[in-house]
């Protein structure tokens, strides 16, 4: 196996299928890279299966200035013809999670689908979808191409190690993240620095600092996910209302199972009086280990959650809304919280 020869063959193959407008299938086998593979707008690229088509960047071979194995960039216009990638395995060169490039990154694209892709040892994220791509890295809401990536799905993928598993940023909108498995991330399993109207559905995270981490957002639904062996299950903040000129709202955290050593659901870790979420539904979750801990959220509705007999719901500072009918105690109630009653420990029944 020779990384220079494999690189040339794979890049030529990708360039050819993009020019011809056909579906390209990478043969089964173990391919080596020494630089980033450049994708093209409109490409349809498949492997023979995530355990059969393996594309690896060995540490001793890598010659690029970051650790991105496969990427779609943006020049002076967006990628508007869609992209489909499936059924292969990417193994990164960075074994220390130095946060220097995602294994697979797509920038500024409308209509994409990623299915059954395995990523191992992504330096920064395993899979990153970004709603920008022009000029320097930025998560500034006023930057060019903010909110430029819309409509897509990441389904049935696996991310192993690295700093993050899956990341949506730059104002990505309308993305479904469903049925993915993320193992042993150094920081977060799924990270949303900035996203609109996205659904996180039936994903499994095991071994991370935070299972799901959400910053600036609107209309995010966190539904039926599992996070185990984590410090915190779901952490969220919000837009900075003064700097960004926008307020986060419409967060649903429903039907999940979080097993955490610290908080199971919290805005205390990443919120502030100027970074909060308006309208939050926390319902029907199974929560083990840590508390629900809220300081800043407005108009919360916390009902139907099951604890482990020792954890509780704790609200303080500026939290407003209602809490009731949980198999968890309600402690340190904020003055703006309405207690609907029927909050009890399992040990009380």
TrEMBL record:
The protein, known as: Right handed beta helix domain-containing protein
Family matches, as InterPro entries: Beta_helix, PbH1, Pectin_lyas_fold, Pectin_lyase_fold/virulence
Domain of life: Bacteria
Organism placement in taxonomy: Bacteria, Pseudomonadati, Pseudomonadota, Gammaproteobacteria, Oceanospirillales
One Pfam family from the record: Beta_helix
Domain spans labelled Right handed beta helix: 103-238
SUPFAM superfamilies xref list: Pectin lyase-like (SSF51126)
Source organism: Billgrantia desiderata
């Amino acid at each position: 196996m020779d990384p220079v020869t494999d690189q040339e063959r794979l890049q030529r193959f990708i360039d050819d299928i993009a020019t011809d407008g056909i579906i390209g299938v990478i043969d089964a086998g173990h391919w080596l890279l020494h630089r980033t593979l450049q994708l093209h707008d409109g490409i349809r690229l498949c492997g023979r299966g995530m355990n059969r088509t393996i594309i690896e960047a060995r540490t001793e071979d890598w010659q690029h200035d970051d650790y991105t194995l496969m990427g779609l960039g943006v020049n002076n216009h967006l990628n508007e013809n869609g992209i489909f990638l499936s059924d292969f395995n990417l193994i990164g060169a960075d074994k220390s999670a130095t946060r220097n490039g995602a294994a697979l990154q797509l920038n500024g694209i409308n209509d994409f689908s990623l299915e059954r892709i395995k990523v191992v040892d992504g330096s920064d994220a395993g899979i990153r979808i970004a709603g920008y791509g022009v000029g320097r890295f930025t998560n500034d809401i006023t930057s060019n191409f903010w909110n430029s990536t819309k409509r897509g799905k990441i389904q049935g993928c696996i991310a192993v190690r690295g700093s993050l598993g899956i990341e949506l940023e730059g104002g990505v909108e309308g993305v479904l993240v469903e049925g993915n498995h993320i193992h042993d991330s150094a920081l977060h399993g799924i990270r949303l620095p900035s996203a609109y109207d996205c659904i996180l559905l039936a994903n499994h995270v095991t071994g991370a600092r935070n299972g799901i981490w959400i910053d600036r957002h609107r209309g995010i639904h966190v539904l039926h996910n599992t996070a185990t062996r984590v410090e915190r299950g779901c952490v969220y903040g919000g837009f900075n209302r003064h700097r960004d000129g926008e307020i986060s709202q419409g967060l649903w955290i429903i039907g999940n199972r979080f097993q955490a050593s610290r908080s199971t659901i919290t805005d205390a870790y990443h919120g502030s009086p100027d970074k909060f979420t308006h309208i939050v539904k926390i319902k029907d979750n199974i929560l083990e280990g840590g508390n629900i801990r809220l300081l800043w959220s407005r108009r919360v509705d916390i009902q139907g959650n099951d604890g482990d007999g020792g954890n509780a719901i704790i609200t303080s500072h500026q939290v407003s809304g209602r809490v009731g009918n949980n198999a968890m105690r309600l402690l340190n109630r904020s003055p703006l919280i309405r207690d609907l009653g029927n909050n009890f420990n399992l040990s009380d029944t």
